[in-house]
Write a structure and sequence with these properties.
This protein is α/β, with parallel strands linked by helices. It is built from 11 helices and 12 strands. Helix 7 links the parallel strand 6 and strand 7. The longest helix has 18 residues. The chain is elongated and about 75 Å long.
């Protein structure tokens, strides 16, 4: 009874880089019944219209598909397809495709793999800004021992370390959990916001893929947890004296321009620093620029003549200095992408812009496949898959 050879299955991999042969060898060792076909395809404007660049017979025979963006145009093109795994954390880029809207083929993401790398980018940009690294680098490039720069030394005297500052994580998923983990180690206070309430210990657990030794598997790091899906709930969270806001919610119709004039007005109470590693359209970009300019204009007029502030906004963490605007931002995502050369965001004061690279690293591809391999094992055991996209929620 039982036993016997497993039915032959076909894994189709369509990615914009060279084949990861070492990973393929690992899959073949653990799942010898799976045939693997690799097709290299660069990015397409409309992912599900890439069929002309992919041999149709490959889609016809595929049991599994691993892809960044290219998918079959319709279910007729993939009658045997049982699972599509994306190497991205989200699926908003294919949410209008027939495969997404008209089929029930399970879709899984690589959510969970990005936490370590993106958390390092978040902390790097946070500290680069608060420690005025651009100034320090300028001194080095000029071979200048900056102690004689009274203006620069004044800025450094007024900086505040992160101990006791509050990090608000808007979207406490795998990335938010790892940022919270690292921020907590630096002495920061962490609070979290999710769409659904997390009122029991079990509901706070991370049920997706977790890179070992990272994140917040049991959801114990936040000192407070907020939730909701309307503006009132969001504003209540933003009003919790947040010094640094991390935007890590998925892009959906509901989260488009989630942060705008009202929200930045609330965050201006603490002149918060805003980091967005999610998607550009979640933030109303012109309004963000205006908030950055407002802070910059007022602090520029408050210098004491010695390079420091007559009123130092970071010197007393509880002081209400009534300075409008946001002290800075770090954006790895913009609206649109790529950002046009003449976009005013490039020159916004105290704003770091990088070209959607915070998740890149040497471990990226292997971890993407690890999620798929975990689900292969679960599928063979009849267990529930992880990282499955809820089509109704959009993530």
């Amino acid at each position: 009874m039982g036993g016997g050879p497993k039915k032959s299955e076909h894994l189709l991999v369509i990615l914009p880089f060279d084949p990861p042969n070492a990973i393929f060898d690992r899959i073949r060792r653990n799942h010898p019944h799976i045939k693997i076909t690799f097709h290299q395809l660069l990015f397409t404007d409309v992912p599900w219209r890439a069929r002309s660049q992919v041999p149709p017979e490959i889609f016809q025979d595929a049991t599994f598909l691993i892809t960044l963006s290219a998918i079959p145009p319709s279910s007729k093109d993939c009658p045997n397809l049982e699972l599509i795994h994306f190497t991205s954390a989200g699926t908003n880029h294919i949410a209008d495709s027939p495969i997404y809207t008209n089929t029930k083929i399970p879709l899984t993401t690589s959510s969970g793999i990005h936490g370590p790398q993106i958390a390092e980018w978040v902390l790097m940009t946070m500290l680069t800004s608060s420690h005025h690294y651009a100034l320090l680098h300028k001194w080095q490039n000029n071979h200048r021992w900056g102690q004689d720069d009274q203006s620069g030394i004044g800025l450094l005297r007024n900086l505040h370390d992160k101990v006791g500052q509050r990090l608000g994580v808007l979207g406490y998923g795998s990335i938010g959990r790892q940022v919270g983990n690292v921020a907590k180690a630096m002495g920061m206070d962490v609070i979290a916001y999710t769409a659904r309430p997390r009122t029991t210990p079990e509901s706070k657990h991370d049920t997706g893929f977790i890179v070992p030794g990272t994140g917040d598997p049991e959801g114990k790091i936040p000192n407070a947890w907020y939730s909701g899906t309307d503006k009132k709930d969001l504003h209540h969270f933003l009003a919790q004296d947040i010094d640094h806001l991390l935007v890590s919610v998925p892009l959906t119709k509901e989260t488009t321009h989630l942060l705008g004039e009202e929200e930045f007005g609330i965050l201006s109470k603490r002149n918060a620093f805003v980091t967005n590693i999610s998607r550009g359209p979640i933030v109303d970009q012109p309004t963000l620029i205006a908030a950055l300019k407002a802070y910059d204009a007022h602090t520029a007029s408050m210098t004491d003549g010695q390079g420091g502030f007559a009123v130092a906004p970071e010197a007393d963490m509880k002081a209400d200095t009534s300075i409008p605007g946001l002290k800075g931002a770090a954006l790895d995502v913009t609206d649109p992408e790529p950002l046009p050369k003449d976009d005013p965001l490039w020159d916004a004061p105290n704003c770091i812009v990088t070209p959607h690279i915070s998740g890149l690293g040497s471990a990226y591809v292997d971890r993407c496949f690890q999620v798929f391999e975990v689900n292969l094992e679960r599928r063979e055991k009849g267990e529930k898959l992880i990282n499955v996209v809820d089509r109704e929620r959009g993530y």
